[in-house]
Structure formats: C-alpha cells, structure tokens
Amino acid sequence: MSDPNKLTDFIFSAGFTDSNLLKYADYGAIIPLEQYIDAYMPNLKSVFDRYPEYRTMCTDVNGHIWALPWIEQLGSNKTAIQTVGGMSFINKKWLDFLGLEIPETVDEFEEVLIQFRDHASELQEEFGIEGSIIPMSCIVNDGDQDPSILINGFGEGYGEVDKDKNNGRHIVVTDEQKVICSATQEGYKKGIEWLHKLYEENLIDPEAFTQEWSTYVSKGKSGRYGVCFSWDVGNIDNLKDWVPLPVLTADTCNLTPQNGSFTSGFDRGRCVVTSVAENPALVCAWLDQMYAPLQSPQNNWGTYGEDDDFDIFEMGKNADGEDMLRHAPLGDASPVEVREAESVGGPLAILDEYYDVYVTCPDDAQYRLDWIEEYYTPDMHTQYVYPNIFMSREDTEKLSNLQADIHKEIKTKKADWIMNGFTDKDWEEYLDKLEAYGLSEYLALFQKYLDSYNASMEGK
C-alpha cells in the first residue's frame, strides 16, 4: 500500500491488524467510515444498534471506525462457541472396555491415565492398535492443542486460557474487574507442577513438546490416544468413540472462558475503503449489501444453486414459509474444504437470531455448542472476559514490545517445567524476570482500556 496510485477503492478481505489499520489511517491510505455507516449502511447500522458493543469494538480512541467488521455469532455469552478453544476429550471406548467412569477430579483423571498406561497391551489387542498406547497427547504451547484447560481448577480457578501460540496474552479479568496475569497465579504454579507429575509417570506423550500438527493427527487417527486436545476431536480421531472431558476439580471447579468470547467471532479489520475511492458513499452502500441477513451466511460459508461438485447450502423455507438457507448434506466432503472452496469472506454479520430464520446452524458448530452448554457452561463461574478492545497506535506498539519478552518467557518455562519440574526458587526467579520485562506496565495497559471500555458501555 505504499503507492496510492495502485490502490483499489476497497479491500474486501483485508484482515488488517489494529497496528496496520492505525498505520494506514495515519498515512491517509484508508478513510474513516462512521459517517457512511450511519448514512448509507442500514444493514450494518442495524447490527450496531442491536449490539452496541460491536460499534464500540470498531471505534478507535479518537472516535473513528477505519474498517468494516466480520461478525459471526454462534451462541452468546457463556454459551458462545469461542468460550472454550482447546477442549479436552477422553476415549469413551477405552473407558468402557476397562470398566472405568469418566473422571471428575484431577486425582480420578490421573488414575484413569494410569489404567490406560498399565493396560496398554489389552487395549492394543482389543482394538487392533498398531503403535504404542499414549494415555494423553497434546502439543504444549500450541493454542487449542495445549493441555492447559486441565489446570483451571487449581488455586482460585483462573486457569490459563489466553494462550494462543502466536498472540497469547496470558491475562484474565477477576470478578472485581481487575486484569491479572494468569501465568503468575498460584493455581497456575500448582497446575504446572501436577502436569509435570503426569509427565514423570509416563502419562503424557513424550513428543508433546516438539510434534507438528500432522504428526499429532496421524497418531490420533491410528487410535493410539486416551486423551487429546483440540477444537474438535473429529480433527484428531472420530466423534463416536470420544466425549468431552468435564471440567476437573482440584482446589475448586471452574472454567475461565476465553477472552473476547462473549461477543463471539469478530474481526475488526476485515474490509477497508481507500482514499482513492471517488464515491465512498456508493462503495459503502454496496458493501452494506454484504450485511444483508441472507447474504452474510453465503459470504461466510458458501452459496447454493451452482453447477459444481457441491454447494454448502440449499434454498429452503423457514417455519413461516420465507426463504431460508439450509446447510446441504456434504456426504464425505469435509465442511472446512467446502467452505474454503465456496466462501468469499469479506465484511459480514451473522447473528444468533438469524438461525432457523435466514439460515440453519452448521452441524459441526451445533454439536460443539451442545458440548459447551452441557459440559462447560455450568462450571464457568467467572463473571467477565477481557473484551475485544481497540488501543491507540502508540499503546498497540508498546504492548507488542512488552508482550514479545513476556510471552517468550512464559512459553519457555511452561514447556521446561512440565518436562523437567521446578523449585520454589525457580518460580520466584521467573516472577522477577517477568517483572523486569515490564509485566506491571503490561497489565496496566490492559487495565486502562478495560476501564475505558466499561465506561463507554455504561447505559448501552
């Protein structure tokens, strides 16, 4: 975007980070859109009016909206599909064969893993498994494949959910609206000590610190796992032999939802209008059609009535006899592959109230929503998640610089300690090092914007 003469009127699926949005805004390469949204975009304005938090999340500290968002609601608040990223799953087929119950506490869980380990030969023979039995596999520090969901019950129950492999911030919001670092809490320390104990007992895959996704999946598809972690166990093995593992009780029973999850899927920088657009009002009016309730699902997932191998939808009717997009049976085709082949992305909004009115809910999303509501929501006792906030350019850069060292230290020590263990002295040195890297300043930045967000939402 260095040469304005080469710009198009808009970039449909820009996917800009906050830093990019603010940088290009400063360059004058993109234009603010708030006046056009209010005057020429009734579909998007309707979404903002119904859910004012999305307008707040799109607006910078100076009151400007620099991009059109992508919004995908699947569930809401503590039942939203993003409240739990990496779920823990347990092999029900193995439990039944060994006459074991689904564990509810960390001690019962450890005992189940021991039974998987000690009855490996029987499991191999019964189920025709080639290769060694692995009681529990995961990929440490790899987002949804990380095992940290298991440690939510230690200490005060904050766990460690904000741990994405690239952008993990390791923060949670207490019920007093205070931002704290999850990876410096006593419960985190106790949880990592317990995971080390499991590793010492040969209950965790020795490749958990180094394996690639392809290796992880390959071993899973060979039927070798007793417990695994992912967004969907169907990615790793199959749906019929596995069930989600309930929230385990240690000192308490709690699952802290992921940050930003109460407002569901959201991308602030999805589509931008550039400064070369001669008629930005017309551009915005056209882009607003992407937010029409029947159009957004097609942009997001795919369309219908095309002369090709498969369509994601069939056009049907809802209970009132009006047009409604129905997810079509895909046979053996992967839903993800069909979506990638058919969807165009771009700016869009799919709201919870659209399901069974304008579009059916995708099957793979519905069973995951059912899992969350049954297994996880009842144990989400934390009141708040950190919202999706829009920092200034200066603070975005400051946060990025602070996060680089803090994130690296947390990841490095976590892997090392699960594998090799640690002492109280190691823990104190770790806390001192994080403070030297600017942890207090880091948390103060998050607190400043949380307070600002809460103030802006008062009365809405």
What is the name of the CATH topology of the largest domain?
D-Maltodextrin-Binding Protein, domain 2
Mean pLDDT: 94
Instruction: Trace the largest sheet across and list its strands.
Output: 1-9-2-12
Secondary structure category: alpha+beta
Oligomer: single chain
Explained architecture:
- The protein is α+β, with helices and mostly antiparallel strands and 460 residues long.
- It is built from 16 helices and 12 strands.
- The protein is globular.
- A hairpin with a 5-residue loop joins strand 10 (313-317) and strand 11 (323-327).
- The chain has helices at residues 18-27, 34-40, 42-50, 52-58, 92-98, 106-118, 120-127, 186-200, 213-221, 280-288, 296-301, 335-342, 363-376, 393-420, 424-436, 439-457; strands at 10-11, 68-72, 87-91, 134-136, 171-173, 179-181, 225-230, 242-244, 265-273, 313-317, 323-327, 348-350.
- Helices cover 40% and strands 11% of the residues.
- The protein folds into 2 domains: 8-76 and 264-363, D-Maltodextrin-Binding Protein, domain 2, CATH 3.40.190; 87-256 and 391-457, Periplasmic binding protein-like II (D-Maltodextrin-Binding Protein, domain 2, 3-Layer(aba) Sandwich), CATH 3.40.190.10.
- The two termini are 37 Å apart.
- A 4-stranded mixed beta sheet has the order 1-9-2-12. The protein has a 4-stranded mixed beta sheet with strand order 4-7-3-8. A two-stranded antiparallel sheet has the order 5-6.
